[in-house]
Amino acid sequence: MAGKADVWQGTLALMALKTLEALGPQHGYGIARRIEQVSGDKLAINYGTLYPALLKLEQEGYIASDWGQSENNRRAKFYRLTAAGRKKVRQEVQEWERASEILARFLAPAEEGR
Amino acid sequence: MRALRAWSLRLPGLFRKQRHESEMAEELQSNLQLHIEDNLARGMSPEEARRQALLKLGGLEQAKELCRDRRTLPALESFFKDMRYALRNLRANPGFASIAILTLALGIGANSAIFSVANALLLKPLPFENLDRLVAVRESLPGQRLKATAVSPADFLDWRRQQSAFQHIAAYRVRRVTLTGTGEPELLPATYVSADFFAALQTNAAHGRVLLPEESQPGRDQAVVISHGLWQRRFAGNPGVIGSDLILDGRKVTVAGILPAGFGFPFGTDVWGPLALSPQQWEQRDTRNLYVLAQLKPGATVAQAQADMLGVARRIEELHPVTNAGIAVSVIPLRDLQSAFTQPLLLVLIGMAGFLLLIACANVASLLFARSASRGKEMALRTALGASRWRIVRQLLAESLVLACAGAAAGLLLARWASDYVRGSIPPGVARHIPGWDRIGIDGTVLALTLVVAFLTTLVFGLLPALRTSQPDLNTTLKEGGRVAAAGRRSRVWSALVAVEVALALVLLVGAGLSAKGFWRMLRMFDGADPAGILALQVSLPEAKYKDAQRITEFFQQVAARMAALPGVASVSAASNTPLNNRPNPVVELLIEGRAALQPGERQPADLVVISPGYFTTLGIPLLRGRAFTATDAAQAAPVAIISEMAARRYWAGEDPLGRRIQRTGASANDQWTTIVGIAADVKQGWFDKEIRPQLYLPDAQSPRPGMTFLLRTAGPPMNLAASARAQVRAVDPEQPIEKLLTLEQMFVEETSPFRFAADLMLAFGAIALLLAAIGVFGVMSYTVAQRTHEIGVRIALGARKADVLRLIVRQGMTTAAIGLCAGLPLALLLSRIMASQLFGVVALEYTTLAAIALLLAAVSLAATGIPTLRATHVDPLIALRSD
Chain B residue with minimal CA distance to A88? Predict the structure, then answer.
């Protein structure tokens, strides 16, 4: 998996939540694939790490799960966003934007040179 | 909030493991399939599709494990897992587990039992909430080393007026009264108390009322309160007894109230009446007949009260030098006064129980050590597989915890049983004289103490080896044979533990052996007739009714004659005291006719025993010379006496005392001289007497006593005659109570029972100590031998004879035992000295006993060493070589 970035802690949950917001109910494999696609295959999602993250989100009540049929008629567990989850996404997105904006200012070349 | 919700979901996760497990497997599986199908759709070969998908998943088991942790609470779960594992482990080693638990249980049980006895007898001998503030106040004569004597009425009044340290101060007088009127006449312990008595003890009546202050005036003193015990026993708990009349010593009194169950002060009292002294009596300063009890003011200490009362005493001394010169006061905490009798024995027992606990600890420690060493490989393997040190320590601690819990539970059961047994081990007649005895039981303090001891012991002794094992040198431990090297270092620790055990066991066994032997000797101290064949019946004639000597003599002669006529009675006698009952005889000073007056400081004391004819034949005490008393030695006949062998030897050395005449010092000039007509063999009066005392026997017709004990030697079992003997007393005087009716042997047993109780306990402790020491030696030697099986195999394969190998290993074990014995000897000597000083005449320092016990312990150690070694040498060398 050389060249591909590992997902750093904390962001995986947000990515999973955002994916569910965009796609609606989705199974774990679908979420993993989607995250990889959106990242332009720059991220490699190890399913082993995604699964505990999903479990945590479920325990915290941001997502819920049901068993259903996949597009090719396979039994799979589907995760969907709860109301609390939707609120959480909005909140997290705002926080990320603020954080990355601050970070961006630090990293951008100084405009008012010395 | 969210975290809390997650927790609440995770907690039940502990219990729904099965469902979660299958759901997780199914989900992972379905996702894997989805991935494979995806890969197939992209045109991969089936094998490639599967391989890629698995790679991506990143280790199925690892993913599952992460989820498991996430789903439940790992710390809690691993605790349960540790406990379960510990239980399984202990079950797999039932020998180790049961020995460790049994050891702990014995140690803890013995300690809890002893502490519950000590708690009841020493710490709270009286059931008063304000016991800490209650004191006894006594007069003392520092010049004559008299610490606590009774108080005169006038002094008490002065004390009450002048003192400032006490909230309440009360006087009381103890005597026995005869209850007549309803049913069998009965002699009751009674206490006559001044007004403040019940206030000082903060006691109220359970039914009715206590005594009123105005009832202390002569003429208004007809009220009494009775004990709960008497109420139950005599009046069947009928509340109607309040307000009814009783006849006490021929005088009518009214029951005013019943005291609460458990109240008994002075201990054993059944009736409390008002101390109604006449004004003349209150003015007496030279008759000291009152005891004084006081309650300290809040905040006042015993020392302050002592100082205050000394000032009062000095003022009285100045005003009344004739009666009170040199008289001081001592203020003694009531608790100390009550436990004075039981204290020395109990302290010895507590010390022994402590030793026993130490042995148990050493035993458990050596067991845990041996076990941890034999598991070194297991631990090294687990460490190599990634278990953290903390994880291993935790698991070993879990095992200790399980052991401690089981040991404590078993120990408490044992302690409960033991304290019940102890409470029942002394006849109620004797237990009545030991304050606190009926309250022996396991209470909260004892319970807490036990638990703390159990857990500390096991955790400390579990932790040490745990810390040790958890950092094994992986290379040496995993390498075959590495443990032989480790064993050398460790075996020193066990050897030390075993030596300590042997030393402590020796001390306990010596204590047990000496006291058992002492008790055995005690029961054989009386070498007269078989005490089991003699019925003793004790009678005290009331002074009021039997005023003149004539009536007393008549009573005893009539009853004795009637008893002698009973079928089955071989001989009858009466005596003022019986041998070996610890009740001292009055001491008289002898004056011998024709001798020069005694030098100042020179004394010729003798114990005075009044007997009726037939005494020596009834008890089987040999009459060495002369004659016994006969019916002709009547009141008007010439006065005669019999002396004991010791008296003859001490006061007539080299002379013949027969026919000599004596007088008691203080006799007036015109008193008759008493002729010595016989010499009897010596008899011991007190169990604890250091020496035989000279005795003087006088015939009862010539010096009548109101209190005598009838002694009946019977052909059959004496108790069969109890009822008819009692009937003879009633036939002569229907109102005369009988104080005691039992065989002489029962009397001996009753008198010795506190000591027998201690001896029994010490024997039990000794037996347990021996057992534990044997287990300890056996355990460690088994382990050592198991460790050396390889070595033994090599030696035998190389041609060593089994006997040589046996000798080699046994020598090692016995060296340890010998070191323990040598270390224990001085301690054992010290203990036997202490015991000999506490229990005069009963326990003596005996080197033969000491040597026998040391030998016994050595023999047990030899067996405990030899058995495992013998077993090892019988193993086929080939198997032994392969074993390591």
Answer: B2
Contact B56 A60 (CB under 8 A): no
Structure tokens given for A54? 């999903």
What is the rounded CA–CA span in Å between residue B522 and residue B60?
81
| Contact between B58 and A46 using a beta-carbon 8 Å cutoff | yes
Closest-CA residue in chain B for A67? B27
Same domain membership, residue B214 and residue B261: yes
Distance between B69 CA and the closest CA of chain A, angstroms: 9
CB B168 within 8 A of CB B196: yes
Separation between Cα atoms, residue B126 and residue B124, nearest integer Å: 5
Measuring CA to CA, which residue among B433, B511, B414, B438 is closest to residue B760?
B511
Q: What are the pLDDT digits (tens) for B839-853? A: 655 566 678 888 888
B294 lies in the same domain as B180:
yes
Q: Average pLDDT of each block of 10 consecutive residues along chain A (114 residues)?
A: 49 87 87 85 76 83 86 83 89 87 80 48
| Domains of chain A, CATH where assigned | 11-107 (1.10.10.10)
Going through B211-306 in order, the beta strands assigned E by DSSP cover 223-226, 245-248, 251-258, 271-274, 291-296
Between chains, do A48 and B71 touch, taking CB under 8 Å as contact?
no
Are B659 and B791 in the same domain?
A: no
C-alpha span between B884 and B881 (Å, rounded): 6
| Distance (Å) from the alpha carbon of B459 to chain A's nearest alpha carbon | 37
What does the pLDDT average to over B718-725?
90
Residues B840, B761, single domain; the answer is yes
Q: How many domains is chain B partitioned into structurally?
A: 4
Inter-axis angle of helices B444-469 and B343-374, to 10 degrees?
A: 30
Question: Sorting pLDDT into bands at 50, 70 and 90, what band is B685?
Answer: confident
Q: From A62, which residue of chain B is nearest by alpha-carbon distance?
A: B2
Query: Looking at the partner chain, which of B9, B38, B62 has a beta carbon nearest the beta carbon of A48?
Result: B62
The residue among B659, B621, B640, B647 whose CA lies nearest residue B700 is B640
pLDDT of B883 reads 56
Residues with Cβ < 8 Å from A21, sequence gap 6 or more? A81, A86, A89
Distance CA B855, CA B517 (A): 17
Residue of B nearest to A77 (CA): B27
Radius of gyration, CA atoms only, chain B: 38
Q: Which of A46, A61, A74 faces B30 most closely, judged by CB atoms? A: A74
What does the H/E/C string look like for B200-224?
HCCCCCCEECCCCHHHHCCCCCCEE
Pick from B5, B10, B27: which is nearest to A77 by CB?
B27
Looking at the complex, report in whole angstroms how far the Cα of residue A109 sits from the nearest Cα belonging to chain B.
39
Q: Which two tokens stand for residue A66?
A: 């049901």
From CA B833, how far away is CA A63, in angstroms rounded?
81
Examine the predicted complex and report whether its ipTM is higher than 0.85. no
